[in-house]
Design a protein that fits this description.
alpha/beta; single chain; Helicase, Ruva Protein, domain 3; 13% strand; 13-stranded parallel sheet; Transcription Elongation Factor S-II, Chain A
């Protein structure tokens, strides 16, 4: 026993030294090391009090030997703390669990003696805690009788576990302390960590040093009034009791007076969780007081008030750390879940903190079978929201807020019609909404809904061209991205009714696995107005019949190299908008195109990233088609036979778009016969070198966009006949070296975009005849060419923009 006693004493002393040393040099595990140090300090007296260590060693010899070996391993474990890298989250997590396990092993080995020595102190602590509970009850009673508020206005404490917000903290702090704007809004969907970030900021040492005791934290509910907010500030921060305000204006004035009396003190007001209807409250709380800042957290974007910081989602490493914390017990018990399942679960949560926390908690203590079953349900189409009501309620709150904007809510739900993780052209959405909700064809009100959803963080709007003009179409060049969980929410909310009664039928087909309900109900019609079918690269275009007599919008998403249109399309008699898009690496080769010719009520058709054949000319039969768009399509010889003047284009077209069609070398001459055409957009077609001579026949044309047609050498002389043209865009047409004299005959032209026309050497003198020309958008180099004629154009405004040749060349290369 004496030998074991000496070994045990030596092992414990060396472990204590290692712990004390590591506490000083490594911050990563300091809290756990301090906890271990306390345990060792409680054990230390046992080594020096006669008889106590003997009682500890009164156990089987092999058990004592094993523990002595464990002490040596423990010392090496502690010394390894400073070696583990900060960025290696997984190793940090595993190492922390080992330290917790070591602490528990020590407590277990010395448990009898520790219980005896700690029993007295524990009794004292119990009495203290009991007294504290009574004091809390007394204070709560006093507060209630005084008519006061709870301490919701004081800065709340931080959560026990925070991950992925350190970088955001530094960025928000940097923006807040800049003098540019008084108001900074941290914006993100619900459950992304906005409130936690605000709390971190308030507890940050630098922020506390700057603002001191004048950090006012108020949680703003959806029904909170200005009076209530001010009352909380007076009561809980300024300690002014029994304050009452007659009106919101009275409350605002008294708060401003109170803050003004604070002299040179800096003030930070945090308004947490502000909803869109409370936007005016932020404006009311802006006072012209030096050093006064307002931090707002909201799931909405308030672009008109101050600056905005959009909080991004977690990266894979931080997401995995958060899932570990939520899913695995911290008591040292080992639950075996293979790494591949954890990685899949992390990917399924898409970096969404709330999803990682809720789903991790639902799997806490569960074995491999539960993890596999959960992932299998999701892969088979069951929504993540079916088993996670907390997640559903949190995200759905933003959608419920659209109760009084039913069209905006419908527009959000329509986003589920497009594939996961893909950019959606804003113009594609606008086309659908114009037809579904009878909105304006010009796009003003339609775009308003797009911007509304963006302001509520229900989608992310990507502005492709910041210089886009109102005349060329609201949001036309924008793209939309949607977080996968928000997309799944849209699908979930669209799928609450029985299948035959749904307004939106959103179908995803993997390989050739047609949904069972479709196969079984081929004779029963569905009532959906929107039909979206998404197929993968292995789908062989084997279709079952589908009766959908009320469908007005059809969205077909594919990834396959070849794709045949479904034969039931010919029976969609009410179809108004058709969107066919390929999201594969290469354009999908479209087949069965003549089926389109039967869609007599079709008004808008958009084909994206597909390979066309001459059979596309069946579109000439669509007498009601008003807008036709080819985006990033492989044109081949599909339009070659259209170069004669046969009626191979829909004769009632009002808008025709060709964008990013990389192999387009000539525009069909038959477009010059479209007597109703109002908008012609041929952009980013880098092989196009000439326009039809008959372009001047388009007497109704109002908008002509030729942006980034880099090989286009000139404009046809007949352009002078376009007297209704109000907008002309030849920006980044690098090969144009002169404009025709007839340009001066465009007597209705109001806007001319020509930045990036670096081959242009001079302007024709006839430009002085452009009497209605109001705006010329150009680069500095081109602006010098206009300086000779500005005096003759008194209403002309020159808008000089930065040289974007590099952006243009990148687009060509990409």
């Amino acid at each position: 026993m004496e030998k074991h006693k000496m070994a045990l004493e030596t092992g414990l002393m060396e472990l204590m030294e290692a712990v004390a040393s590591e506490i000083k040099i490594t911050p990563k595990f300091r809290a756990l090391l301090k906890r271990l140090h306390i345990t060792l300090r409680n054990i230390e007296p046992i080594l020096y009090v006669s008889g106590r260590l003997s009682r500890v060693l009164d156990r089987p010899e092999n058990e004592t030997k094993m523990f002595i070996l464990h002490l040596e391993d423990g010392k090496q474990l502690v010394l390894k703390c400073s070696v583990i890298k900060c960025w290696n989250v997984y190793h940090k997590f595993v190492h922390a669990n080992k330290l917790i396990h070591l602490d528990r092993e020590l407590s277990w080995f010395f448990q009898v003696e520790l219980q005896d020595s700690m029993s007295t102190s524990m009794r004292v602590l119990t009495e203290v805690y009991g007294l504290g509970d009574k004091m809390d009850q007394v204070l709560a009673t006093v507060t209630e009788r005084a008519g006061g508020f709870s301490s919701s206005c004081s800065v709340p404490g931080l959560p026990d576990f925070i991950v992925g917000l350190d970088f955001h903290l530094q960025e928000v702090k940097r923006l807040l302390l800049k003098d540019d704007n008084q108001v900074l809004t941290v914006s993100a969907p619900g459950g992304c960590g906005k409130t936690t970030l605000a709390k971190m900021l308030c507890h940050d040492n630098e922020i506390k040093r700057i603002f001191g005791d004048y950090i006012f934290y108020v949680t703003v509910s959806r029904t909170t009034s200005l009076k209530t907010i001010v009352q909380k500030i007076f009561t809980h921060h300024l300690h002014v009791n029994n304050c009452e305000f007659q009106t919101d204006e009275d409350a605002k004035n008294q708060l401003e007076n109170m803050m003004s009396q604070m002299g040179s003190e800096k003030i930070l007001l945090v308004l947490d969780d502000v909803w869109c209807e409370s936007q005016s409250i932020i404006q009311d709380l802006k006072f012209p007081i030096p050093g006064y800042k307002i931090l707002v957290t909201s799931r909405f974007l308030f672009s008109s008030i101050g600056s905005t910081y959009e909080l991004s989602l977690l990266n894979d490493e931080d997401a995995r750390t958060l899932l570990y914390h939520s899913a695995f017990p911290c008591d040292g018990s080992q639950i075996s879940v293979p790494d591949d399942l954890i990685i899949k679960m992390v990917k399924s949560c898409k970096g969404f903190p709330l999803a990682l926390t809720v789903i991790g908690a639902s799997l806490r203590g569960q074995g491999e079978l539960k993890w596999r079953a959960t992932l299998k349900k999701w892969s088979e189409g069951q929504s993540i929201f079916h088993t996670n009501s907390q997640l559903l309620l949190s995200l759905q709150a933003s959608v419920d807020e659209l109760e009084y904007m039913p069209i905006a809510r419908d527009c959000f739900l329509d986003l589920g019609s497009f594939p996961e993780d893909e950019k959606i052209a804003a113009s594609a959405l606008l086309d659908l909404w114009v037809e579904l909700y009878n909105l304006d064809t010009e796009g003003m009100y339609t775009s308003e809904y797009l911007l509304e959803l963006s302001s509520r963080n229900l989608l992310n709007l990507i502005v492709a061209r910041k210089d886009a003009s109102e005349l060329e179409g609201y949001c036309n060049d924008h793209y939309v991205l949607q977080h996968d969980l928000l997309r799944e929410l849209a699908i979930h909310l669209s799928s609450q009714e029985p299948i035959p009664q749904r307004k939106r039928m959103l179908i995803e087909i993997h390989a050739n696995d047609i949904p069972t309900w479709w196969i079984e109900q081929t004779q029963q019609p569905i009532v959906a107005r929107i039909l979206s079918i998404t197929t993968d690269e292995t789908f062989s275009s084997v279709w079952y019949d589908l009766k959908a007599p009320k469908v007005e919008v059809l969205v077909l998403n594919t990834r396959g190299k070849k794709y045949a249109l479904p034969h039931f399309i010919r029976n969609l008699n009410k179809l108004k908008a058709l969107n066919i898009a390929s999201y594969g690496v290469y354009p999908s080769e479209l087949h069965e195109l003549p089926l389109i010719g039967s869609l007599s009520n079709l008004k808008r058709m958009r084909l994206e990233h597909v390979s066309l054949s001459p059979s596309i000319q069946s579109i000439s039969e669509l007498n009601n088609l008003q807008k036709l768009s080819f985006n990033m399509c492989e044109m081949g010889n599909a339009l070659e036979s259209c170069t004669d003047h046969s009626p191979t284009m829909p004769q009632n077209l009002r808008e025709f778009e060709l964008d990013g069609c990389y192999d387009l070398k000539q525009v069909p001459a038959s477009i010059c016969d479209l007597v109703h055409l109002e908008k012609l957009s041929i952009t980013n077609c880098h092989e196009l070198d000439a326009l039809p001579n008959g372009l001047g026949n388009l007497l109704t044309l109002e908008i002509l966009r030729l942006h980034s047609c880099t090989k286009l050498a000139k404009l046809p002389d007949s352009i002078g006949n376009l007297h209704n043209l109000v907008y002309l865009d030849i920006s980044n047409c690098l090969s144009i070296n002169s404009l025709p004299d007839q340009i001066g005959e465009l007597n209705g032209l109001r806007v001319l975009k020509m930045n990036g026309c670096h081959g242009l050497e001079e302007l024709p003198a006839s430009v002085t005849n452009l009497s209605l020309l109001k705006d010329v958008i150009c680069d500095e180099e081109t602006s010098y060419l206009w300086s000779y004629y500005e005096s003759g154009l008194c209403d002309l405004k020159m808008n000089v923009v930065e040289d974007d040749r590099l952006a243009c060349l990148m687009k060509i290369v990409g």
